[in-house]
Structure formats: structure tokens, C-alpha cells
Amino acid sequence: MAQSIIPSKTRALGVLWNPLSLIFTQGQVRCHWKCQSRLSNNTKYEHVTCKQKNKQKNKYKIYVCHFYASRSCLLRVSPPNENLIISNPYRPWYERYQPISYKLCTRSGNEEQFRDMVTRCNNVGVNIYVDAVINHMCGSGGGSGTQSTCGSSYNTGTKDFPAVPYSYLDFNDGKSGTGSGEIENYGDANQVRNCRLVGLLDLALEKDYVRDKIADYLNNLISIGVAGFRLDAAKHMWSGDIKAITSQLNNLNTQWFVIDLGGEAISASEYFGNGRITEFKYDAKLGNVIRKWNGERMAYLRNWGEGWGFMPSDRASILTFFDSRLYKMGVGFMLAHPYGQTCVMSSYYWTRNFINGKDVNDWIGPPSYSNGSTKAVTINADSTCGNDWVCEHRWRQIKNMVIFRNVVNGQALANWWDNGGNRIAFSRGKKGFIIFNNDNMDVTLSTGLPAGTYCDVISGQKEGIRCTGTQITVSNTGSARFLISSSAKDPFIAIHVNAKL
């Protein structure tokens, strides 16, 4: 398994590029979500708005109103706690994953702004999930001083973090089993869990004091109204330590969340064994298929899911927004297929500089001014984002596939068709049908859908009784003709029962 210090900025499709992570919620959220969205790294809290469907949107505040209209109700945010300010390179995106304390103040905003965002989102049914960094504090090379987002003091040489407080007694030094204190052998479970991950000061999670401090931090977020967490670098923590911490967590804030299992209030600890694991190879393998690398074909996706063997990540092809045509195909497949809990990424642009096949600018943080403050997410006349924000979640194709996924929720994959190569199609029961073409195609297929005329939600969308894109006619036998050129801007078509004209 490839290792990285923190999840990559260019998350492809919806699968996080990071060491094994764990996602859980402390209670059963009453929310019929099927598509999880993620707030782009370091976006300011004030630029997130949560509004009721069909109400006028503030053009400067974009995220949740669109997801809410698409019936998606999860938004995951970058770590909200105080972090080290890194100046070399200048304010990289990964500084958010180097904690100084559990105070709530980052480049995204302070505690008051965080609370306001959570409240506004919860009030319209959009739940906030938090990236939680609890395995470690900042890197051992962070020095000392007050160069942190809340101004708290720290000393990495003496392992002193008074704003928590942590001292040298609260770290794993001395039991790593390596001379350097770093992970030197990823095949050794003790090293992976007890040594420093590329220099990050590893917390002694077996100590009650450390567990209590982390639980206090997470419980504070729960009291504010946070609905769940993604535990960063979960592979580097003993599962028993995670269980000990999560067993101390409170139930969700009853102002917004109701736990309803047979009328009884259920303890949060009963749910933690069901935490989801992030499959970070998903995007890599699907990228190979979409690009037709290494002899891969879309026809091979017939048994996509648990039965697939994944390639080493360093040989994989990652789809990102820089390859927008292929990226939309990949996201479309992910949202149409029933495998897993999906996640849609929202990104930002940066100037790439490839040297020997590696982007040496992959550290660059969010769009910022010269003083380091993050730029606002502005909306252009064509609904795209400005100020170098990508906002893939606003792309028509992705937004409409979020709706597709919710429409077909609970429907089995059926009516699979492929040509043995790079043309595939399948239905989700009798509610939705999607077809992909990585070649030229003119074919008539059984859709499983009721007869009628449908609006393709990829080339356009249904607006009242009108379709702004391609119309597909399903016959009385359930069949329909699909014509897709390999040069088409979007080489796939999706229809569902809610897009019937």
C-alpha cells in the first residue's frame, strides 16, 4: 500500500488518497442521503451557505444550496482545529493536518464562524462531517514559537503543546523500535502504529489522559452540531485505542438529530464498529479503465466492487478535474453504481509544474492573497466558480448524477450490457439507466424503464416540461436507442424516472 502523510489535494472521484481512514457517526442521523460531498480544502466557513431549496442564492456563497437542491445532505470539512503555520513552502494545503491544539481557529475561520456554519447547515438538513486529526500533532521540525492559526505557543523540541496541554510524556517516543523514531518498515505493524509518520509527533493514544483530551475535542464538536468524523491516518492507530476514544463520545446534539431505533435512545458506542473505511484505490483503478491503460476495458467493470483486485498505486492513473471529460465519466460511473458510500470532491486550481513526471507544485494551498488570506468563492454568470475555485459539485453532469443516485436508491444493478470493450450500460432496477461510450456507438438496449420520453441529465436537464438536452424514447418493451460519438463532450447518457417528460 502506498503511504502518504496526509490526504492529497487532488482527490479523484470520491475516494480519498490517504493512509487508511475511518468514517463514523455517533448515532443514526435521520437523513436520506446517498451522496457525500466534501468541502474543498481550506474554504472559508463564511463562504458556505445553507439555504432552503428554491430560495434565492447569495452569489458569493455556493456550496450547500446546490447540494441541498440535489438532495444531498453531507458536507465534510477540513480539520477545524488550530494548526501550524508553514512558511516554507508558503501556506501549503497540508498544514491543516499538523495540529497545535484543539482550539477551533484555522484559515477557514474562527470558532464563532465555524459554529455559525454548522448551525446554518443543520437548520436546512445538511449535516457537517469533520476531518479529525488525532493520531499526531505537528511535525518534529516545526520548531517553537507562536506561528499557529490561533497564536498558541508550542515547542516541538521539548514536545510541549500548552494549549492542550500535552508534554513529552504524551508521545510515543521511546517505544518506536527504530533508531530514528520514524516508520522504517511498513510491514511492521508496531512501527506503523507507534512510530512517527514522516516526522509527525505521534501521540500515545493508549494513555487515558491523551484519550480524554481527544474525546473532549470531539465531544465539543458534537455539542456544536457536527454529525460525524473522518479519522485521518486511522491505519496508524491501534483499533483498540480508537474504540477507547470513541466509546467516550456523546450522542448527537438533540437540537438537530434524533436517534430513533424502536423508540429507545441508543448509546453512540454501539455504532462505532460499523465505521466506513475509505477505499483509496477506487479512483486509481477506475482511472486506468477510463483511460484504457494496461489493457483495461470498461467491460471489466461488470463485477466492480469487492471482487476487484487493485494495482499498486504508483502504477495507477488518477482522474482529476484537469481531465474534465474523463473525470465526469468516472464520477458518473461512481454515482450510478451501487458500490460503497460515494463522495464528490470540490477543488481549486493551481499552477502545475511537472519535473520528471512529478508535479513539484503539488503542495500549493487554496487560492489566496499575498498575505495568506483565502480568496472568496465567487460565482460567474455561467454558474462556474471564480477566483481559481473549481467547484466540480456545480458542474451540471455531476450535480444531476447526485440526483440520479438518490432517485435509484435501493435499486439493484440490472440489465448490464457491454460490447466486450469500452461500451457499457446498466440500469438500477426500473428507476434509472446509464450508458457509457469510450468508442463510437449506435445501439438499442433494454433499459428496464417504463415507456416514455426521458431527458438525458448529462447533456441537459428537465426544466418543467422541457428538456434542455438530448431526449431518449423508451418503447413499450423497455428498449431505447442510444447514439454517442467518441468525440462527444460527455460520452455518456443517464436517464431516470424523475426526468421523464
TrEMBL record:
Signal peptide: none
Pfam families (UniProt xref): Alpha-amylase (PF00128), Alpha-amylase_C (PF02806)
InterPro entries assigned: A-amylase/branching_C (IPR006048), A-amylase_C (IPR031319), Alpha_amylase (IPR006046), GH (IPR017853), GH13_cat_dom (IPR006047), Glyco_hydro_b (IPR013780)
The EC number(s) this enzyme carries: 3.2.1.1
Domain of life: Eukaryota
Protein family membership: Belongs to the glycosyl hydrolase 13 family.
Stated name of the protein: Alpha-amylase
Species name: Leptobrachium leishanense
